[in-house]
Design brief:
heterodimer, A: 436 residues, alpha+beta, 7-stranded antiparallel beta sheet, 30% helix, globular, B: 236 residues, alpha/beta, 7-stranded mixed beta sheet, 28% helix, 21% strand, HMCN1-like_VWA (chain B), Thr-specific_kinase-like (chain B), signal (chain B), secreted (chain B), VWA domain-containing protein (chain B)
Chain lengths: 436, 236
């Protein structure tokens, strides 16, 4: 596409009017199944089944009840949150996916449910997460059929998810390129059609229907030995790739003035770019033409990675829960319970394991990395991290002890981050000028 | 499973400093009465609203700057506290706000920009993580230009900017080298009329602002404390 065509498409309505919401494209055989290995028997129009719905019997699925972990118990009175798992039969074992979605206040979570799709015919797919920005979009905007009002942030994340769903459909059908310009066009178009209400609050922090977006579009190479990756994002949600040998690599750079991941944990700064209906925004990207299989793609909102003590903790969460799980359902269950035990925000995560023979192979592939990670980044952490938090704020005198704890934790964080950072940032994209 | 995340939340909670700039001229009885009646509960109410959002506060400090008009009576145009730790110093906070009597003011514009300048230059927290430095302005009037009214009075603040441009430099912007506030921490919440300088240029051009437009001259009577606290919490 030429620059001229780009400009023309940005200023005109979508060239292919987005389809109304509908089922995603059909699933086709995963890598390893080989051409002609039963493309007509994909698992159906839905890429994922909810694990808290009755499970349909599956030929190849071991009938195991998810093991209940003892550590992070279900909070009393909370409605069980949703999680989704695609557990394929034997022909699809090398493609395993799950998503986890939790909310702080039942029914009012501003993260949309994660998006996970794989198109079998063209061997491409996408995972994505969306975090409605509550501070900037707190205005009650839409009243649901049950009478409950939802904020602009709540609406924005759902509308963005719908736009991504429709955009991917067109990408899979060959009508759109998997590039940020066309995704931007879809997001603008859908947000412009979404319900909006005038707010009596103004100011430069305010946005209409604000949401983050972090996605990874992937496409298998013809021989299924490698995969092409294109992360797409706006805001401070993140996409990662997890390698059995080199660990977790971040693929996105937060749209904040600060880019050091540890400093971001400490400051939680405001975003400089976010998807919204009333101001310009950008969809950032980078292109990794070839990444070795097997690997795991991850997209997560800051409810997952923004409330840990060091960036390495998030990888430890992924691998420690994987190590304890016996199947995808258990992994999803553990990820959900663990995040609910520590997060201060709505949290959602989409995860896609590519190129592993089955779940046992997936788990064993990361055992060595888990041991190394634990040895280097978990052992030696300050004992204060195991103590229960104090309730409420206290006066100046009692803060002395807290400041000493704080200094100890800070020194440990610095040391952990110094050694972890190079590997984590291997694929960190450079900063776009407008987001510095 | 012994995990790496643990239960310690000391560096994951928010250390919140709030500077309340309160117009104490004659028309401001309604909002002053609201602040006075809820002073002792301020900490708990903010904690409750934050808890509903899944967030918690490691330290809360509050500073009050009451302002009137240097052009009317320079002797009582500014009254202020140091940062007070809440809840430990809640009584001191209550005593100060109870002692503010709405009165004076002279002409329509007040000395709100002097109060804002003092707030910007406050001794904000620098040690704890996840700092939030929030200035909340309550006024129902426009403001005199900085350095133009009462600037020769002995009580006029000596080290504040003398122009709007210089004040903007102190507030800061992207890649600013002159900002005296931390970019990641600062917020400005305005309960002020849609008049200069509050709506334009401050709410429209300064970054990280929330502007709740009030009716001019009516003392912000339309605002309940719950709404004020909710707006402050949303800014964090």
């Amino acid at each position: 596409m030429t620059d001229q065509e780009h400009r023309a498409r940005h200023s005109a309505p979508p060239p292919h009017p987005p389809h109304p919401p509908g089922p995603p494209p059909p699933l086709l055989p995963p890598p390893g199944a080989g051409p002609g290995a039963g493309p007509d028997i994909g698992p159906g129009p839905m890429a994922a089944k909810r694990s808290n719905e009755p499970k349909e019997p599956q030929e190849s699925q071991e009938p195991q009840e998810p093991k209940r972990p003892g550590k992070a118990e279900e909070p009393a009175g909370r409605v069980p949150p949703r999680q989704a798992v695609w557990t394929p039969d034997q022909k699809y074992k090398s493609l395993q996916t799950l998503s986890v979605w939790t909310e702080q206040v039942s029914g009012l979570g501003e993260d949309a449910e994660p998006f996970v799709v794989h198109h079998l015919e063209t061997q491409q797919g996408m995972i994505a997460v969306f975090d409605g920005s509550g501070g900037a979009g707190a205005t009650p905007t839409w009243q649901g059929p049950d009478g409950a009002w939802h904020t602009g942030a709540w609406v924005g994340s759902r509308v963005a998810r719908l736009a991504v769903d429709c955009w991917f459909r067109e990408v899979a059908l060959g009508n759109e390129e998997a590039v940020p310009e066309s995704l931007h066009l879809y997001l603008r178009w859908f947000l412009s059609k979404a319900p909006q209400r005038h707010s009596k609050i103004g100011g430069t922090m305010r946005r209409r229907l604000p949401t983050t977006l972090a996605a990874v579009h992937y496409r298998f190479h013809a021989d299924y030995s490698r995969v092409e990756l294109r992360p797409l994002w706006a805001g401070d949600s993140r996409a990662y790739v997890l390698s059995p040998t080199s660990g977790l690599h971040v693929l996105t750079r937060d749209h904040t003035r600060e880019s050091d991941a540890l400093e971001l944990l400490r400051t939680d700064p405001p975003m400089t770019n976010v998807v919204c209906a009333d101001r310009e925004f950008t969809i950032d990207t980078q292109h990794l033409a070839s990444f070795a299989l097997p690997c795991v793609l991850v997209a997560a909102t800051d409810g997952y990675f923004g409330y840990v003590h060091t960036p390495a903790d998030f990888e430890h969460l992924l691998l420690s829960t994987l190590r304890e799980a016996h199947n995808e359902y258990e992994w999803a269950d553990l990820l959900r319970r663990e995040v609910q035990a520590y997060t201060g925000d709505d949290a959602s995560l989409a995860l896609l394991a590519l190129g592993h023979k089955d779940f046992a192979h997936l788990r064993s592939s990361y055992e060595r990395r888990f041991a190394d990670l634990t040895e280097r980044y978990v052992r030696g952490r300050p004992g204060v991290l195991d103590r229960a938090p104090r309730a409420g704020s206290e006066g100046p005198r009692s803060q002395e002890g807290e400041r000493e704890d704080h200094a100890r934790v800070r020194a440990w964080q610095d040391q952990s981050w110094r050694t972890y950072r190079a590997g984590y940032e291997t694929y960190l994209p450079s900063a776009a000028e407008e987001h510095r | 499973m012994t995990d790496a995340r643990g239960q310690y939340q000391g560096n994951l909670q928010y250390a919140v400093d709030i500077a309340l700039c309160i117009d104490a001229t004659g028309s401001m009885h309604p909002v002053l009465d609201t602040v006075k009646s809820s002073a002792l509960q301020f900490h708990q109410r903010l904690d409750d609203v934050m808890a509903k959002k899944g967030k918690s506060i490691s330290q809360l400090r509050l500073k009050v700057i009451a302002f009137r008009d240097f052009g009317d009576d320079p002797s009582d145009a500014i009254e202020e506290t140091d940062f007070l730790h809440l809840p430990a110093q809640a009584k001191e906070f209550e005593r100060f706000v109870s002692g503010i009597d709405a009165g004076g003011g002279g002409d329509i514009p007040e000395s709100g920009l002097e109060a804002l300048a003092l707030a910007i230059n406050s001794p904000w927290e620098t040690g704890l993580d996840r700092r939030r430095h929030v200035i909340v302005m309550f006024t129902d009037a426009p403001a005199h230009a900085l350095g133009t009214v009462g600037a020769d009075a002995s009580t006029y603040p000596k080290h504040i900017p003398r122009s709007m441009d210089d004040l903007f430099e102190q507030w800061g912007y992207a890649r600013s080298q002159t900002s005296v506030m931390e970019q990641s921490a600062k917020r400005l919440v305005l309960f002020a009329p849609e008049e200069a300088p509050w709506s334009d240029p401050i709410a429209e051009e300064w970054d990280l602002t929330l502007h709740f437009a009030s009716k001019a001259g009516e003392g912000l009577e339309e605002f309940e404390m719950d709404e004020i606290i909710e707006t402050i919490a949303n800014s964090l």
